[in-house]
Amino acid sequence: MKMETDRIRLRPWDRKDLEDLYAFARNPAVGPQAGWRPHQSKEESSQILSRMITTPDAFAVVLKSTMRVVGMISAGIDTSRRNLAAKTIGCALDEAYWNQGIMTEAVGLMIRHLFDDPGTELIAMDHFVENRGSRRVIEKNGFHYEGTIRQKVRLYTGEVKDCRCYSLTRTEFEMRNASS
């Protein structure tokens, strides 16, 4: 499946993405919203890029008008559920592109990609309580609010954060697509 919209493309990471990754991952407004420390050096970005290149379901978010990487999105097993057919999505976007619908499109593409696997029954996403941008992305993609887990994450700073949790079942996704 080709993962693209009119504006963006999701594609596997490549070594040539280092400059773009470092450009947005060093921004102190980006990483902490997703729970990770801003990258301190290109070497750190290079190490993380090496891991993303070999990680299944980890994609660069590419703005088609410039062909630059402006974000990241990945999925893995939702370890908070005992249902191994559940996946979870994580993402981050260059601050210059916030509030433009780009991550909403990227998450929509990732949802379709994950549900292309007939074994995926549910997709989960969560966000820190104060992150309204992520909340909008999640809700626009049809996820249902499950509740807030208090003190879910301890950040690299030692700060403990609450997370709002959401899910989307295969049935909900199929019903939503059938009516659109």
Automatic annotation (TrEMBL):
InterPro entries linked to this entry: Acyl_CoA_acyltransferase, GNAT_dom, N-acetyltransferase
GO molecular function, a single term: protein-N-terminal-alanine acetyltransferase activity
Q: Give the PROSITE patterns listed for this entry.
A: GNAT (PS51186)
Q: Which UniProt keywords apply?
A: Acyltransferase, Transferase
Give the domain of life. Bacteria
Annotated ranges, domain N-acetyltransferase: 8-164
Task: Write out the GO cellular component annotations.
Answer: cytoplasm
Q: What is this protein called?
A: N-acetyltransferase
Keyword check for Transferase, yes or no: yes
